[in-house]
Design a protein that fits this description.
Elements lengths: L2 H5 L7 H9 L2 H15 L4 E11 L28 H13 L4 E6 L9 H13 L3 E5 L5 H10 L3 E3 L6 H4 L8 H13 L3 E3 L2 E3 L5 H12 L7 E6 L16 H14 L4 E4 L8 H9 L4 E3 L12 H11 L2 E2 L7 H16 L10
Parallel strand pairs: 1-2, 1-9, 1-10, 2-3, 3-4, 4-5, 6-7, 7-8, 8-9
Helix pairs in contact: 2-9, 3-10, 4-5, 5-6, 9-10, 12-13
Bound molecules: S-adenosylmethionine (SAM), 6-(5-methyl-2-OXO-imidazolidin-4-yl)-hexanoic acid and iron/sulfur cluster.
Length: about 350
């Protein structure tokens, strides 16, 4: 491996090059990914974000993986846009358990003019709590993007989800180029981009490679790259999708880390179906962000205490944020450890 393997920010990846990354022996890939990771990050820090669904269900889009699509009957109770104060209460709770970023998601095709003022108040309020702010509201126009940036939104999450080639088998109500347009508005407005995809929808290795090529070949890499493992929800067309080989999922994280060396790669949805060993391997492959808190948007996520305990056993500390002292994280870890103290003997690498 040359020095340029570790330090160059490339935007010209070819399919052949990315296939070669994916298909090398597992240990070679992980070694390369971990080496790149260490050149850019503290390998023992993981960023923690908490998710909240601020508007749930009855979405007009037809994303085949999604429990919130109005096209499928998943038994999900639909809810209106939450009250601003209720969102701020949840954000304060997330901060108290050690999250540094609060991500608010809405099951919309795009925000409406009537909803925008409330959404902007949520951004301002969450920011005032000293948390980083992230929203995922669907497609944006330029004026909405500018308004969110003015309100202080740090990150906008808008996933490409899969390769351009496979995309039309998954979603027909929004085009790939509309997604790229929204990302370009977000970048132009000066916000950070969070964009990634989902594995386990029946995509090929080339689809995974082409998704990463789309992301890495953007003029600037997304600062945050969520890699989700499909959460199979009954009632969606993907409820019986075949399980992905866990090693192939780890390979995806490792290749994302190598292609976007300075981005946070998030081990996102699907952790409920992963054991601790797999999650540890994911961190070794260069994943350095998780969704933290008992719920994703509508489905379950590992208990916060369980995550802190895993961090502690691995000697990982949550990544600090300028407004967020390490003491908050330490308190969350100690709380998790106290719960375990009398019941188990374990090796705590963090103390
Ligand atoms: N409605 C907005 C949109 O799609 O742009 C924002 C919310 S949407 C739920 C955000 C992302 O969640 C999707 O792009 C998809 O990547 C992810 N997601 C949704 N359902 C999922 C599932 N069952 N498993 C894994 N990821 C999922
Ligand atoms: C992302 O990439 N994953 C998150 C977030 N961005 C918005 C959403 C995961 C949703 C999983 C299914 C659910 O809980 O509804
Ligand atoms: Fe709607 Fe987003 Fe779900 Fe697609 S992923 S159905 S746009 S909530």
């Amino acid at each position: 491996m040359s020095a340029s393997t570790f330090n160059t920010m490339r935007h010209d990846w070819s399919l052949a090059q990315v296939r070669a990354l994916f298909t090398q022996p597992f240990n070679d890939l992980l070694f390369q990914a971990q080496t790149v990771h260490r050149a850019h990050f503290n390998a023992n820090r993981v960023q923690v974000s908490t998710l909240l669904s601020i508007k749930t269900g009855a979405c007009p889009e037809d994303c085949k993986y999604c429990p919130q699509s109005g096209h499928y009957n998943t038994g999900l109770a639909k809810e209106k846009l939450m009250q601003v104060q209720a969102v701020l209460d949840e954000a304060a709770r997330a901060k108290a358990i050690g999250a540094t970023r609060f991500c608010m998601g809405a099951a919309w095709k795009h925000p409406s003019a009537k909803d925008m003022p409330y959404v902007l108040k949520m951004v301002e309020g969450v920011k005032a709590l000293g948390l980083e702010t992230c929203m995922t509201l669907g497609k944006l126009d330029q004026a909405q993007t500018a308004a969110l940036a003015d309100a202080g939104l740090d990150y906008y999450n808008h996933n490409l989800d899969t390769s351009p080639e496979f995309y039309t088998s998954i979603i027909t109500t929004r085009t790939y180029s509309e997604r790229l347009q929204t990302l370009s508005y977000v970048r132009d407005a000066g916000m950070k981009i969070c964009s990634g995809g989902i594995l386990g929808m029946g995509e090929s290795l080339d689809d995974r490679a082409n998704l990463l090529i789309q992301l890495a070949n953007l003029p600037e890499h997304p600062e945050s790259v969520p890699i989700n493992m499909l959460v199979k929800v009954a009632g969606t067309p993907m409820e019986n999708a075949e399980d992905i080989d866990p090693f192939d999922f780890i390979r995806m994280l490792a290749v994302a880390r190598i292609m976007m060396p300075q981005s946070h790669v998030r081990l996102s949805a699907g952790r409920e179906a992963m054991n601790e060993q797999m999650q540890a391997l994911a961190f070794f492959a260069g994943a350095n962000s998780i969704f933290y808190g008992d719920k994703l948007l509508t489905t379950a996520n590992p208990q916060a205490d369980k995550d802190m305990l895993l961090f502690s056993r691995l000697g990982i500390l949550p990544e600090a944020h300028e407004d967020h002292a390490d003491e908050v994280h330490q308190a969350a870890i100690e709380h998790a450890l106290m719960d375990q103290k009398s019941s188990e003997q374990f090796y705590n690498a963090a103390v």
